[in-house]
């Protein structure tokens, strides 16, 4: 019987096959992200933040047993306040995925993380979607290609720092067939790396030219009156060269005058000695 809702589909063998791999990736991705606030948008019946060390973890959705009910397109979260946001298949089932990403970019702090899981249309899962009922989960979603999602993130100032393909086995409904195709998961990364039914992306919000704001008490450690003033370089006047040349000429003239005066005194002294010397008589 086809699964009409996400909860029903996740209870099937194929849904369990997907959940096992998604829990594994999210556990690894969020374990080393630190901060104070983490948010999971969608799939709230599954705690994908269980491995996070962030103290405040909030699951958000429009309905169901959630920590906060809200529209993903207008999150009731302050700007620059989130350290981590998870989007587990949130974009494919929204009529405006761009707005969701814009909201995520708004609420995230600089250098904060977003982790995304999406169904891959370039896979056997995407091929089945072309022929399956568009009323059943997950085939009714709008699968987003990996290059397109990367472009959207780049436009919002995100930098991709991690990612992975998963679920290479065909989307079979029976457990025995999933087990028989288990070899495809082991060889998928090597032989068909872009053919996974699901892909994950981890991105960081970058803010170029950001300046760290230090506490006010640090500015008072060195009073402004004790700061040394660095003199500015004064431009040399146009006639400076001429002034230096004039000084050189004057100095040279003084040297010449002193030398002439010394010769004059020596000649006068010699003349005095000659005058005092007795004359020889023949």
Which key features would you list for this structure?
single chain; 282 residues; alpha/beta; Rossmann fold; 2 domains; 7-stranded mixed sheet; 9 helices
Write up what this structure looks like:
The N and C termini lie far apart (161 Å). Helices cover 38% and strands 17% of the residues. The model has no long low-confidence stretch (mean pLDDT 82). It has two domains: 200 residues, Vaccinia Virus protein VP39 (Rossmann fold), CATH 3.40.50; 41 residues.
- Count all strands and give the number: 7
CATH superfamily of the largest domain: Vaccinia Virus protein VP39
**SSE string, helices as H and strands as E:** HHEEEEHEHHEHHEHH
The description of the largest β-sheet is: 7 strands, mixed
Shape: elongated
What is the strand content? 15-25%
Rounded to the nearest angstrom, the distance between the terminal CA atoms is: 161 Å
CATH topology of the largest domain: Rossmann fold
Q: Give the CATH class of the largest domain.
A: Alpha Beta
Q: Which residues form runs of ≥5 with pLDDT under 50?
A: none
The residue-averaged pLDDT reads: 82
Instruction: Supply Rg.
Output: 41 Å
Helix amount, in percent? Answer: 25-40%
Widest sheet: strand ordering:
3-2-1-4-5-7-6
């Amino acid at each position: 019987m086809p699964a009409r809702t996400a909860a029903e589909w996740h209870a099937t063998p194929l849904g369990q096959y997907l959940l096992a791999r998604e829990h594994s990736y999210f556990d690894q991705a969020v374990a080393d992200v630190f901060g104070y606030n983490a948010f999971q948008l969608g799939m709230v019946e599954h705690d994908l933040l269980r491995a996070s060390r962030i103290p405040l973890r909030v699951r958000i959705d429009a309905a169901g047993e959630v920590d906060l009910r809200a529209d993903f397109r207008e999150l009731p979260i302050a700007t620059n306040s989130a350290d981590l946001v998870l989007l587990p298949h949130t974009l494919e089932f929204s009529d405006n995925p761009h707005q969701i990403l814009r909201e995520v970019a708004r609420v995230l702090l600089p250098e904060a993380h977003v982790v995304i899981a999406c169904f891959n249309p370039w896979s056997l899962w995407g091929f089945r979607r072309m022929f399956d009922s568009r009323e059943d989960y997950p085939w009714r979603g709008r699968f987003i290609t990996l290059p397109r999602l990367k472009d959207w993130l780049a436009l919002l100032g995100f930098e991709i720092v991690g990612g992975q393909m998963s679920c290479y086995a065909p989307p079979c409904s029976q457990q025995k067939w999933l087990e028989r195709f288990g070899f495809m998961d082991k060889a998928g990364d090597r032989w068909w790396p872009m053919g996974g039914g699901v892909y994950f992306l981890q991105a960081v919000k970058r803010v170029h030219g950001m300046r760290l704001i230090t506490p006010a008490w640090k500015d008072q450690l060195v009073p402004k009156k004790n700061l040394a003033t660095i003199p500015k370089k004064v431009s040399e006047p146009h006639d400076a060269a001429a002034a230096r040349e004039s000084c050189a000429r004057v100095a040279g003239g003084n040297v010449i005058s002193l030398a002439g005066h010394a010769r004059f005194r020596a000649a006068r002294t010699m003349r005095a000695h000659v005058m005092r010397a007795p004359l020889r008589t023949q």
